[in-house]
Amino acid sequence: MAEKHFKYVILGGGVAAGYAAREFAKLGVNPGELAVISKEAVAPYERPALSKGYLFPQGAARLPGFHVCVGSGGERLPPEWYTQQGIELVLSTEIVKADIASKSLTSASGDIFTYDVLIVATGSTVIKLSDFGVEGANANNIFYLREIDDADKLVAAIQAKKNGKAVIVGGGYIGLELSAVLKLNDYDITMVYPEPWCMPRLFTSGIAAFYEGFYANKGIKIVKGTVAVGFDSDSKGDVTAVKLKDGRILDADIVVVGVGGRPLTTLVKGQLVEEKGGIKTDAFFETSVPGVYAVGDVATFPLKLYNELRRVEHVDHARKSAEQAVKAIKAKEGGQTIEEYDYLPFFYSRAFDLSWQFYGDNVGDTVLFGDNNPESPKPKFGSYWVKDGKVVGAFLESGTPEENKAIGKVARDQPPVEDLEQLKNEGLAFASKI
Ligand code: FDA
Ligand code: NAD
């Protein structure tokens, strides 16, 4: 049982950890000062690839191709990069105990890591159907997707059950991205979700109508307004069917479940102040305990633009919060301060040849514009959210880089609008002229 001390420890080895390590290297870190501890067996990578390119039937993305920081146009950081920088990458190591008072972490095998400064970057875990006691939910070939190991198991099953039937439980990000990529793998797909339309946390009914129509045209069946209440399996324990609350039974060779995530804060429970399900931080991602920072999915931080505390489960924020925390740590050491985090929420998704981006806040009245007919050869549409007479959010499907930049600027600048009908008629032109 070893005991090791580092000046800085990043707990977690995902997106935020990788971007934090790069920022440390940029700002200067001596060999042996920094460790990244991850329960995954691989160096930090761009997690969004797992539900997209990683599952393609041909030309699938594989490591080292998508290690951070390629996702935001930077250079890839393969494992050798950490060695060259003198950064210790402690992989396949799960931390099972964090003692914030004594500044020490204990791994599952009993190793102890002590630190001066800690960055908690443990991300999220999946909510499981077995958490709600759904009968038969532990059958084989029922998959969740969070880490590369999960994706590898899914890839093996896609090959083993070739051209089979897949039921996708959940109508959020995972549900929409996985249905599309499994369809590309020639699976017969049925999606099941309880709400009246997909992605209700972000999509309006008008936005959702386009994607549901598009998916239906691809042959994907959608069952709404009900949930999975049980699974049947054969003598080998392989899933064979999904039982729905409304009595229907769907045959299945593979089931993918995406019913939401939960931030991994258990290690620090009772030791750091929490808020809105995450670890509460200031605008520099420092928690209630000085010298302990939290970034990415686990952080509940002041979102300056809306003057409220928020938690964001998306990759852009994971990258930027990590950079902000490291800048703040380094500035503090030099007796300096940096600007407060001033984040504009940015979410995106890609499926089939579709690609959307959203910036800002999805509150207030909505205005749908453009061509959202799923039958169109080149559909292009969007939505604005208008609150207190100002545009506060904007969504665009199939935008060019310039157009996406324009909707981002609208959400940031929050221009006033008087007439929603006129905004609808102007559509994208409204954003382009800001
Ligand atoms: P992240 O989950 O990346 O990393 C956490 C790390 O901590 C993991 O390596 C984990 O193993 C490790 N860890 C946790 N507990 C530990 C412990 N006790 N000991 C050691 N290590 C521990 N977002 C987006 O904007 N666009 C997109 O297209 C996608 N696509 C997407 C696909 C899929 C499949 C997922 C699961 C998620 C996305 N996301 C996304 C969300 C995005 O990936 C997510 O917000 C970031 O990865 C969050 O970064 P973090 O570093 O906070 O957590
Ligand atoms: P989500 O919150 O986006 O969607 C969960 C969905 O589960 C809900 O919309 C609902 O339709 C459904 N649901 C809830 N209970 C259900 C039940 N009992 N039966 C059937 N359906 C049920 O979560 P997710 O799609 O699981 O994604 C997990 C995490 O990964 C999130 O943090 C998400 O932000 C992240 N992610 C993001 C992207 C992206 O940004 N493009 C892509 C993939 C994953």
TrEMBL record:
Residues 344-431 form the Monodehydroascorbate reductase 3-like C-terminal domain. Residues 6-322 form the FAD/NAD(P)-binding domain. The keyword Oxidoreductase applies. GO terms for molecular function: monodehydroascorbate reductase (NADH) activity. It holds the Pfam family Pyr_redox_2. Its EC number is 1.6.5.4. InterPro entries: FAD-oxidoreductase/Apoptosis (IPR050446), FAD/NAD-bd_sf (IPR036188), FAD/NAD-binding_dom (IPR023753), FAD/NAD-linked_Rdtase_dimer_sf (IPR016156), MDHAR3-like_C (IPR048618). One of its GO terms (biological process) is cellular oxidant detoxification. It is an enzyme of class 1 (oxidoreductase). It catalyses: 2 monodehydro-L-ascorbate radical + NADH + H(+) = 2 L-ascorbate + NAD(+). Keywords: FAD, Flavoprotein, NAD, NADP, Oxidoreductase, Redox-active center. Its cofactor is FAD. GO terms for cellular component: cytoplasm. It comes from the Eukaryota. Belongs to the FAD-dependent oxidoreductase family. PANTHER family: APOPTOSIS-INDUCING FACTOR 1 (PTHR43557), MONODEHYDROASCORBATE REDUCTASE 1, PEROXISOMAL (PTHR43557:SF5). This is monodehydroascorbate reductase (NADH). It comes from Dioscorea cayennensis subsp. rotundata (White Guinea yam). The gene is LOC120261643.
